[in-house]
Amino acid sequence: MSLLRTHQHWIAMNATIELLQSHRSIRKFTEQKIPRELLHELIRSGQCAATSNHVQAYSVIHVTNPENRQAIAELAGGQAYIADCSDFLVFCADMKRSTNAAERAGAEVVRGTTEQLVVASVDTALMAQNVAVAAESEGLGLCYIGGIRNNPAEVSSLLRLPEDVYPVFGMCLGYPDQNPEVKPRLPVESILMEDYYRDDQEEQQVSGFDSTMNEYYRERSGGNKDTNWSEQLKPLFTTKLRPHMQGFLQGKGFGLK
Q: 0.85 exceeded by the pTM?
């Protein structure tokens, strides 16, 4: 147990809080393989996450075929660690199983609503984060792969995903072969608001965080990366927009109503 000093008080942090606050993305892995029994326990831990109305609107594809792993690595933008890690998982929002179950139970089901898209996406994210925490508690490293949404139709075809199922993100898992620093986060004061949304300090807070991130990038790169948080956000709102996602999701039966 460690201690955290805040406002002149020392607060004891338990092992779980310490683990959560030490998360790093790992992109280099040793050749050691994760035991299949441990992988199954990680998935079971994921299943214990909160789920809307007990729908459990997710499926996980464990991609073991080396050719498929390499293909996904290329489809995700040339991320070689997808092929190199011990295990690669694709977390899918899945409304097929639950919708079919309700229909077999006699319901006149309504398919393709925006709310169903939200429910399935949130369920999947919560489930995956439980897997991530469980994995890190066992000394594993991981990296989320949002890049599979660069080419979601191709990934779906490769994984034979049916209608009402779409790939949300991937996850590389393995034993770490690197020890990167924890990347700073926005200060709590920037995102925790009392009673109402407030942005009167937003510009000042972001400016301060930009300075923090600039120092982080410069130290990590030996002075070769001179940027900040705001600068790093630019591609998200200019080039990494993935406009194909709306049509893709509609083609999968999501978000039509």
A: yes
